[in-house]
C-alpha cells in the first residue's frame, strides 16, 4: 500500500496548499508509478474508493466545502485500478493485450468531467494547469481509441469535442472583474485549442464558431478590465502564454481559410508563424503550409530559400513558378500531382478554385507586358487585344476550343471582381486598361476584403 498512500498524501498536500505544480506532478504519473499504484489498488478491488478518499482527504479540512475534488481523486484512482496507462493508447505502443480502450475512454471522460466540475467552483483558477492535463489527455485518448476501434465515425473524438467546447464556454463567460490570469478566462484559449484540435480531426469546422464565441467573449472582458484600470491590452490576449496564442491563431487562420476569408487567414497564420519560436521548427512548418497557400492566393510569393529550408519546394516551388507566369495547365497539373497531400491538409479545393483567377489575371498581365511598348502614346491608356490573349490562353490552358466570347466573359468577370481595372471595347476587340503604375492590374492582395 506504500505507493498508493504516498500518492494520495502527495495529492492531499498539493490540494491543501493549492500548489498547482505539485498537484500536476501528482496526477501526471509515469508508467512505473502507475503500475505500483495499480497493484496496491487491486489488493482490494472492491474497495469503495469514494469513501476511502473522503477518509484520506476530509472535506472538513479542505480549502473548499465541496466533495468535488475528492470525487475527482476517487475516479482518477478507479481509472488507474482498472485500465492501462494513457501512454499505451497509441496504436504504435505495446499496450496490454486485454486493454478495453472503449471503457478506458469512458472512465477517463468521467475523470475529466470531475476535473471540469471542480474547476467551475469559485477560487479554483490555480487548478488550471491540472485541468490542462486532464483535457489534453482526453483529446489524445479519444483520437487514439477512435484510431484503434472507430476510424470512420470517430465517436470518442466527437464526445471529447463536445465536453471541451462546453468547458470553454464556462471559462469564457467568467465575468469576474479581475485580470484574465486571475479568472477562469485564463483557461479559455487552452480549452478552445483542444476543441479545435478535435473538431479539425472530425472535419467539422462549423462547430468551431461556438468555441470562437467563447474566446471572443473572454478577450472582450479582458480588454474591458484593462481599459478600466489604465492598462494596455488591445488584443485581450496578454494573460495567455505565447504557445496558446500561437496555437489559437493557427487554428483561427485555418478556419478563416476554409471560410474563404483569405486576408484574415493570412493575417492570423502570419502572426502564428512569426511568433512560433525556432525551437519548434516542426510547428513552424505546420503553420507555413497553409500560410504559403494563402499567400499564393493573394499573389504574394515566398522566397525559394524559405520553401527549401522548410522542405516545401517540391510541393510549392513549381506551382509558384507556373502561377507567376500564367502557365495555367501546368499549374493545374502541379496541383493534381500533389492532390492527396493537399487534400489531407484541406488545401486542394480552395487552391484549385482561387488560383484559376490569378492564372487568368497573370496571363493577361504578361500579354500586356509583351505587347505594351514605347510605340504607344504615353497619354493613352494601355490596351490589350483580345485576340492576342485568346492565342496565349489556348496555349496556357492547352485548350484550342477557347473562343473570343470565352475570353470576353472571363475578362468581364475579372473586371467585375476588381482583379482588372478597365473595360472591354467590343468594336475594336481590345481591353482598355486603367492608366497608372499598375496599368490596370492592381496587386491581387488588395482586391480581397480584409
Topology:
Elements: H1 2-17, H2 20-27, H3 31-41, H4 49-56, H5 68-82, H6 101-119, H7 128-149, H8 155-172, H9 188-201, H10 208-228, H11 242-258, H12 262-275, H13 281-297, H14 304-309, H15 313-325, H16 328-337, H17 339-344, H18 348-371, E1 383-385, H19 386-396, H20 404-417, E2 422-425, E3 430-433, H21 444-447
Antiparallel strand pairs: 1-3, 2-3
Helix pairs in contact: 1-2, 1-3, 2-7, 3-5, 4-5, 5-6, 6-7, 6-8, 7-8, 7-9, 8-9, 8-10, 9-10, 9-11, 11-12, 11-13, 12-13, 15-16, 16-18, 18-19
Task: Give a quick rundown of the structure.
The chain has 21 helices and 3 strands.
Describe the structure.
This protein has 450 residues and is mainly α. The protein has 2 domains: 2-240; 371-447, Winged helix-like DNA-binding domain superfamily/Winged helix DNA-binding domain (Arc Repressor Mutant, subunit A), CATH 1.10.10.10. The protein has 21 helices and 3 strands. Strands 1-3-2 form a 3-stranded antiparallel sheet. A hairpin with a 4-residue loop joins strand 2 and strand 3 (430-433). Helix 7 (128-149) runs parallel beside helix 9 and helix 8 runs antiparallel to helix 9 (188-201). The longest helix has 24 residues, at 348-371. It is elongated. The N and C termini lie far apart (63 Å). 39% of the residues are buried. The mean pLDDT is 93. One of its GO terms (cellular component) is transcription export complex 2. GO terms for molecular function: double-stranded DNA binding; RNA binding. It comes from Pseudozyma antarctica. This is Related to protein that forms a complex with Thp3p. Residues 246-438 form the PCI domain.
Amino acid at each position: 500500500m506504500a505507493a498508493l498512500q504516498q500518492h494520495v498524501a502527495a495529492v492531499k498536500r498539493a490540494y491543501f496548499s493549492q500548489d498547482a505544480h505539485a498537484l500536476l506532478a501528482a496526477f501526471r504519473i509515469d508508467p512505473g508509478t502507475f503500475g505500483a499504484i495499480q497493484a496496491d489498488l487491486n489488493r482490494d478491488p472492491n474497495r469503495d474508493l469514494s469513501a476511502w478518499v473522503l477518509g484520506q482527504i476530509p472535506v472538513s479540512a479542505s480549502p473548499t466545502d465541496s466533495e468535488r475534488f475528492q470525487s475527482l481523486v476517487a475516479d482518477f484512482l478507479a481509472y488507474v485500478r482498472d485500465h492501462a496507462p494513457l501512454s499505451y493508447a497509441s496504436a504504435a505502443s505495446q499496450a496490454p493485450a486485454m486493454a478495453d480502450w472503449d471503457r478506458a475512454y469512458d472512465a477517463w471522460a468521467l475523470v475529466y468531467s470531475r476535473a471540469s466540475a471542480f474547476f467551475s467552483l469559485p477560487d479554483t483558477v490555480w487548478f488550471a494547469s491540472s485541468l490542462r492535463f486532464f483535457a489534453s489527455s482526453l483529446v489524445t485518448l479519444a483520437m487514439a481509441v477512435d484510431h484503434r476501434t472507430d476510424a470512420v465515425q470517430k465517436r470518442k473524438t466527437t464526445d471529447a469535442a463536445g465536453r471541451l467546447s462546453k468547458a470553454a464556454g464556462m471559462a469564457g463567460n467568467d465575468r469576474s472583474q479581475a485580470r484574465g490570469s486571475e479568472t477562469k478566462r485564463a483557461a479559455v484559449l487552452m480549452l478552445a485549442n483542444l476543441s479545435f484540435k478535435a473538431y479539425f480531426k472530425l472535419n467539422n469546422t462549423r462547430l468551431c464558431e461556438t468555441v470562437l464565441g467563447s474566446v471572443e467573449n473572454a478577450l472582450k472582458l479582458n480588454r474591458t478590465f484593462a481599459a478600466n484600470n489604465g492598462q494596455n491590452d488591445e488584443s485581450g490576449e496578454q494573460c495567455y502564454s505565447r504557445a496558446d496564442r500561437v496555437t489559437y491563431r493557427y487554428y483561427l487562420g485555418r478556419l478563416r481559410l476554409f471560410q474563404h476569408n483569405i486576408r484574415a487567414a493570412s493575417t492570423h497564420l502570419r502572426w502564428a508563424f512569426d511568433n512560433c519560436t525556432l525551437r519548434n521548427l516542426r510547428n513552424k512548418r505546420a503553420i507555413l503550409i497553409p500560410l504559403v497557400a494563402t499567400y499564393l492566393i493573394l499573389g504574394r510569393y515566398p522566397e525559394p530559400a524559405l520553401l527549401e529550408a522548410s522542405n516545401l519546394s517540391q510541393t510549392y516551388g513549381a506551382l509558384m513558378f507556373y502561377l507567376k507566369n500564367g502557365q495555367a495547365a501546368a499549374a493545374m497539373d502541379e496541383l493534381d500531382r500533389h492532390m492527396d497531400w493537399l487534400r489531407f491538409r484541406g488545401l486542394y479545393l480552395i487552391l484549385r478554385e482561387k488560383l484559376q483567377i490569378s492564372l487568368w489575371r497573370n496571363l493577361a498581365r504578361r500579354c500586356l507586358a509583351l505587347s505594351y511598348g514605347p510605340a504607344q502614346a504615353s497619354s493613352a491608356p494601355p490596351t490589350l487585344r483580345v485576340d492576342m490573349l485568346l492565342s496565349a490562353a489556348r496555349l496556357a490552358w492547352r485548350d484550342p476550343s477557347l473562343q473570343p466570347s470565352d475570353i470576353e466573359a472571363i475578362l468581364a468577370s475579372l473586371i467585375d471582381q476588381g482583379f482588372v481595372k478597365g473595360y472591354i471595347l467590343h468594336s475594336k476587340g481590345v481591353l482598355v486598361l486603367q492608366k497608372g503604375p499598375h496599368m490596370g492590374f492592381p496587386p491581387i492582395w488588395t482586391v480581397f476584403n480584409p
